[in-house]
């Protein structure tokens, strides 16, 4: 059995919470103003989808290749590097004059997330296994809180100083977090001294099943980022309405995530994750069937309540499948699957949206989620008892 790592022996988790909050606020600003890139610079909907996919693709590569470094004691360095790349990405987007500038900025921000997220997740997971659900819920709450604050701030700054102003302001605010990033310290849990490749984790069936459930959820995320904002704009929403709507819609996730993590640890991450993703699949279909701005916003708020309760359960399901010294590698693969699936979904569904409209795009998203979820459910059948296993990470012998 993997040895526990007591909280008082580990690092402070505050720097990890704050950095993810700041970076999420930055990327939320970019997402909120996607319609402005189309209106101000004439980017096509497919071009905007290409920028989204480019950022997610960069995060995919970074998550696969660099996440294992956190298992070798380099989580603080990864957190700092991610912050600096995030600042560079925002500055590049702020200076955008053509499509490729925006793509480069999104790629830099994607690399930033690919570095920071696995490092933060490993540290939070191994710091205090007895409170794994609560801590992952808090990490998720700070992460999503960035998406709560970012859109409203971006909409306000856009109204005051134009659509480039939010990116400059967010870059400055991230710069203020540099001292916080330099206070991050390595965890004291067992390290991957054998420097194993993350690909050997694909022999773990339970982990593969968790990845399918993660993929199903991030079809929804990719659809939301590439379709939802553009559809709000198409339905006649002003930029401030889009920003406020995203903030209000994301708020329940930030509030409910810590509580949802505790419940997932108590009753089982598998059933909690499947329930959450299945609910999102149903709402995805409904998004394309309702008309008007308010109907779409109300449904999104209702969906985000389900997301908040289930949000921490997917990284918990991944965590329970591997020992402590492979946490970052597993979470890195999960992050790569998240962004890879979201990138494909964003690009593909943007093309479907442009050709056939939102109803067809959202239904395709919902059906795809259902198929992936069924596969993940079947592959993780052995983990019905994971509520008891969440207090202690699994035995290394299960890593094959």
Provide the fold topology.
Blueprint: H1 14-32, H2 34-41, H3 45-66, H4 75-94, H5 99-127, H6 132-161, H7 165-175, H8 178-181, H9 205-234, H10 239-267, H11 269-287, H12 293-310, H13 313-319, H14 327-356, H15 358-379, H16 386-389
Helix pairs in contact: 1-4, 1-5, 1-6, 1-7, 3-5, 3-14, 4-5, 4-7, 5-6, 5-14, 6-7, 6-10, 9-11, 9-13, 9-14, 9-15, 10-11, 10-12, 11-12, 11-13, 11-15, 14-15
Summarize the structure.
The protein has 400 residues and is mostly helical.
Walkthrough of the structure:
This protein has 400 residues and is mainly α. It has a single domain, classed as Growth Hormone, Chain: A, CATH 1.20.1250.20. It is 76% helix and 0% strand. The chain is built from 16 helices and no strands. It has helices at 14-32, 34-41, 45-66, 75-94, 99-127, 132-161, 165-175, 178-181, 205-234, 239-267, 269-287, 293-310, 313-319, 327-356, 358-379, 386-389. Helix 11 (269-287) crosses helix 13 (313-319). The chain is globular and about 55 Å long. The two termini are 15 Å apart. The model is unreliable at 1-9 and 384-400 (pLDDT under 50).
Name some characteristics of this structure.
400 residues; mainly alpha; Growth Hormone, Chain: A; 16 helices; 0% strand; globular
């Amino acid at each position: 059995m993997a040895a526990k790592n007591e909280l008082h022996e580990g690092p402070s988790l505050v720097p990890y919470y704050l950095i993810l909050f700041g970076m999420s606020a930055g990327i939320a600003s970019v997402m909120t103003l996607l319609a402005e890139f189309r209106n101000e610079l004439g980017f096509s909907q497919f071009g905007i989808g290409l920028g989204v996919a480019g950022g997610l693709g960069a995060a995919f590569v970074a998550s696969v290749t660099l996440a294992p470094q956190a298992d070798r004691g380099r989580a603080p360095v990864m957190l700092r590097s991610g912050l600096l790349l995030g600042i560079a990405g925002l500055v590049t987007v702020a200076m955008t004059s053509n499509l490729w500038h925006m793509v480069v900025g999104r790629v830099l921000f994607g690399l930033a997330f690919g570095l920071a997220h696995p490092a933060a997740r490993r540290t939070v997971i191994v710091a205090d296994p007895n409170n794994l659900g609560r801590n992952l819920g808090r990490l998720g709450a700070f992460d999503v809180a960035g998406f709560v604050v970012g859109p409203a701030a971006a909409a306000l700054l856009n109204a005051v100083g134009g659509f480039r102003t939010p990116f400059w302001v967010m870059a400055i605010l991230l710069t203020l977090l540099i001292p916080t990033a330099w206070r991050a310290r390595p965890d004291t849990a067992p390290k991957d001294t054998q420097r194993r490749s993350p690909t050997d984790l694909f022999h773990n069936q339970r982990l593969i099943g968790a990845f399918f459930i993660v993929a199903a959820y991030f079809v929804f995320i990719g659809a939301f980022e590439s379709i939802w904002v553009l559809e709000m704009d198409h339905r006649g929403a002003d930029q401030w309405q889009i920003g406020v709507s995203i903030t209000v819609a994301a708020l329940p996730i930030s509030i409910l995530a810590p509580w949802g993590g505790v419940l997932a640890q108590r009753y089982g991450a598998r059933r909690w994750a499947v329930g959450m993703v299945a609910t999102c699949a149903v709402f995805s279909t409904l998004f394309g069937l309702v008309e008007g701005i308010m109907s779409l916003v109300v449904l999104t708020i209702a969906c985000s309540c389900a997301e908040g309760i289930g949000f921490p359960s997917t990284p918990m399901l991944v965590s329970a499948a591997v020992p402590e010294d492979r946490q970052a590698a597993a979470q890195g693969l999960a992050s790569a699957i998240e962004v890879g699936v979201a990138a494909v979904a964003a690009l593909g569904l943007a093309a479907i949206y442009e050709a056939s409209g939102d109803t067809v795009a959202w239904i395709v998203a919902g059906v795809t989620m259902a198929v992936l979820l069924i596969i993940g459910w079947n592959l993780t059948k052995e983990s019905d008892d994971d509520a008891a296993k969440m207090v202690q990470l699994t035995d290394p012998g299960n890593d094959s």
